[in-house]
Design brief:
- By secondary structure, the chain is α+β, with helices and mostly antiparallel strands.
- It has a single domain, classed as Macrophage Migration Inhibitory Factor.
- The chain is built from one helix and four strands.
- This is Tautomerase.
């Protein structure tokens, strides 16, 4: 049972997220030989004021 975790900043549409999880699932099925039903994808979105790069919050950029 492959489990894929994706962490990204909030802001994508439902359609973008749906396409992303489909594409990830397709890649795991093709490359790892897993069945589609066995692939789990967890998407964690974080607010831009909870993530920083170089000491600067993404919300401040």
């Amino acid at each position: 049972m492959p489990i894929v975790q994706v962490e990204l900043l909030e802001g994508r549409t439902h359609q973008q997220l749906a396409k992303m999880v489909k594409d990830i699932t397709d890649a795991i099925v093709e490359d790892a030989g897993a069945s589609r039903e066995a692939v789990h994808v967890i998407v964690r979105e974080m607010p831009k004021d909870r993530y920083s790069v170089g000491g600067v919050l993404k919300s401040d950029q």
